[in-house]
Amino acid sequence: MSVLLEPVRLIDADFLHDPYPGYRALREAGPLHWSEEFFDGAWVLTRHADVEAALRDPRLSAQRTGGWVMEAAEGERAQLRPLQRLFARAMLFLDPPDHQRLRQIMQPAFRPDRLAALQSELDLMVAQLIDAVEDAPGAEFDFMERIARPLPARVIARLMGLEPEREADCMAWSEDLAAFIGAARPTPEQARTAQSSLIEMAAYFEQELLPRRRREPGDDIVSRLLEAERQGQIGAGAELLAQCAMLLFAGYETTRNLLGNGMLTLMRQRDQWQILCEQPERVPSAVRELLRYDSPVQWTGRRVAADFELHGQTLRRGELLIALIGSANRDPARHEQPERFDVRRANPGALSFGSGPHICIGAALTQIEAQTLLGALVRRCPDWTLAGSPRRNGNPVYRGLEVLPLRTQG
Ligand code: HEM
Q: How many Cα atoms occupy the beta-carbon half-sphere of 401 within 13 Å?
């Protein structure tokens, strides 16, 4: 190992509550650090320009799931292998040529014209969720339970063609996987829970959903993957299953946290909420600013594929690199007054969806969801207020809330 730097510590209870002072100190201390907190140690990048360049750098590989198993205690390795083997085949963790092959299969499902066709269904889902809460004037409710969880769950279920009665199971499995994948160093308990959820999820896909979609194809992504399987473009079994698990987890977890983090920011910064209530046409740029200000994905990782020099250090083949998206989004070299949340900010230009070949395939979808919800809220519910302290989910990567108590107008 080539480390000369003093290792830094980042993740503690203060960080989980508010990571931004820690990022700031780290950014000011330098662009590149070594930390022992991630698996068996990792390089950590703090600045916008470096994070963006790293995500576009072909010397860095997306294949990084091996660390999940290497870090585990001897007795748990065998248990974790199926989880690691499956996720290692998901597009998010693959390099060319497999990455492009899979991305090309899925990309058309996220094209703007396909998403535009969803708009009227989305309007209806949002209206129903708000109606149900507004039924009780002056009442306290949990925004996460009543709106931020069900909305992305319904959208991803619709997109993937999941049966509505299995929606709750799918989301519970996805939350268990997020707790494991989002941990800097997963606990044995997180690993066991994720493993058993994955087994249940796989059984559901293999025994129920895939056979049904083979018999009755629809305009959903699972049917599209099955068609690709018939044409020999995607491997039957594990490869197909890995993309399903990845989509479910990536589509639900992140959007839920965008909605929760976003609503909390707006409820706390009332002047900004007021601007949106008076000028709803600002909602799309407000969503982009919410993504920058409190990103639902705080970092991503890569493995060094070939030795190279960066900021005076040699990064060696096989070492892990963590690109701190949450820190990059508050870099003063890229954003004026980065600690300020401003719905009028022109072109927030954040890295919340990543950059380069793996840039989020669901970015447009998630923004449409958030814009539809926020647009309806500022028009219909300008008087909603915070009704208590929110509870964080404790996940350092997939930063979000468990509970967000709000009150409707009395
Ligand atoms: C607020 C919402 C979202 C955020 C912040 C987010 C963030 C990200 C980020 C940072 C990446 C790149 C990771 C990397 O380079 O290592 C990514 C990739 C990905 N996202 Fe999202 N995402 C969101 C919503 C969604 C949705 C709604 C879907 C699908 C329905 C989705 C599916 C994916 C997939 C499949 C990839 C892998 C793309 C590839 O490897 O080519 N995401 N996302």
A: 22
